[in-house]
Design brief:
The chain is of the alpha+beta class. The chain has 14 helices and 11 strands. The relative contact order is 0.14.
Length: 403
């Protein structure tokens, strides 16, 4: 089985303000359209089952980069944005948080009516995945959100999350139908949560004798649980620290956006109309769309696209966010009409960043970068849940460079 991870997820309460929720939906739709146009529906579903990519997506959308809230807010934004275009995109997002999770069977049967896929089988898979993670995985986490993402060909991914209020932790579980050969033996593609020590895992291969004994006792086939695959370990601290990001990769993005001349890069001429700060965001968004799995080992790096609603690493730059959305939307629209130049220019950003990394040397100026972003936040209409960013005095010699 493909292994893809576990992660520390501090349990955070709160809300997503409307000014951010609306932008998350627009950016999420543009990213989804770009991925499907370039790589197909299968790749979108595969990425949704990758906990590192999913956390990076949430970070680039301006959510708290490390918290459990990314799960519900990102999936909620994607559901609102994608479902009205499901007929065109071929992707449907069902379920949600709390009472909305119980609507999943009805929604899946509705998808089946529209597409001709086997709705009863989809409902069965939805219920089994929830049963496995809530009952067969006896790790102390109670499910409170369940999302079933399905294509019009019947391929699906599941993202669901449980909480343990006693220590304010959450665990996120990822599934992908491509990797499922059995619901009772190592079915997951990923499990994300704080390591709580030994757990009862009746879906492990080593538990086959135990399962056989249970069957003999109960005369029923147990619907059981998980193997922890990749390890996405997210810290409790709110601030983004140097150890949370790949400084070489972040430094390359900043160099490409702020210290290079676009004239030197033919591929970027079609995006030269945007400012350096938006180019920084577009480069990180480009990586979310076109990056390979190994590029998402440090999800915190993607918070340097649009900050975070709680102010870490800096307030959400509204002007930059809107310009990023507009650029992506224009590229998607032109691509639909056969004009792919802007799409290719955006793709080139991630490719240039990867090429530049080879000989790039990052200096330890991480804190200066964060302070520079915060000092300039008011210029980009920076905003958090606490209010708008205001101009402030900065120390002399503050630099943006990481090299």
């Amino acid at each position: 089985m493909k292994r893809s991870g576990s992660a520390d997820l501090p349990l955070h309460y709160g809300y997503v303000p409307s000014w951010l929720a609306e932008r998350m939906a627009k950016l999420g739709l543009a990213i989804t359209e770009s991925i499907i146009a370039e790589h197909g529906k299968h790749e979108m579903l595969r990425r949704m089952s990758n906990p590192f990519w999913f956390q990076s997506l949430g970070a680039v959308m301006g959510m708290d980069w490390h918290s459990s809230g990314i799960t519900t807010s990102v999936l909620g934004a994607l559901k609102r944005a994608i479902n009205p275009h499901s007929g065109e995109l071929g992707i449907f997002i069902c379920g949600g948080k709390g009472k909305f999770s119980k609507e999943t069977p009805r929604e899946l049967l509705s998808v089946a009516d529209r597409t001709g896929v086997d709705g009863n089988n989809l409902v069965r898979c939805s219920k089994l995945s929830a049963k496995v993670d809530n009952t067969a995985v006896q790790d102390g986490f109670q499910l409170y959100t369940h999302n079933f993402i399905v294509s019009d060909s019947g391929e699906w991914s599941v993202i669901q999350q449980g909480m343990r209020t006693s220590d304010k932790t959450a665990r996120r579980y990822h599934w992908h139908s491509e990797n499922i050969t059995s619901f009772v033996e190592e079915p997951h593609t990923a499990v994300c949560g704080i390591n709580q020590g030994d757990i009862l895992n009746l879906t492990a291969k080593e538990a086959a004798p135990t399962r056989s004994s249970l069957i003999a006792i109960t005369q029923e086939k147990p619907e059981l649980m998980l193997q922890q695959f990749q390890h996405l370990m997210l810290p409790v601290h709110h601030d983004v620290r140097p150890e949370d990001v790949d400084l070489k990769r972040l430094g390359t993005v900043l160099w490409l956006a702020h210290d290079s001349h676009l004239e030197n890069f033919e591929e970027l001429l079609l995006v030269r109309g945007v400012g350096p700060r938006t180019l920084q965001s577009l480069t990180l968004v480009s990586e979310v769309i076109h990056g390979t799995p190994s590029r998402f080992k440090d999800p915190a790096r993607f918070a340097f696209a649009h900050g975070g609603k709680d102010g870490h690493p800096f307030p959400v730059p509204i002007k930059v966010y809107d310009e990023t959305i507009a650029t992506l939307q224009t590229a998607v629209h032109k691509s639909k009409m056969g004009q792919t130049e802007k799409q290719q220019a955006i793709k080139a950003l991630s490719e240039l960043a990867r090429r530049a990394e080879k000989n790039f040397i990052a200096e330890n100026n991480f804190e200066a970068v964060v302070q520079k972003e915060r000092a300039d936040s008011w210029k980009y209409e920076g905003r958090t849940v606490f209010g708008q960013a205001m101009p402030r005095k900065t120390s002399k010699g503050l630099q943006l460079r990481l090299f």
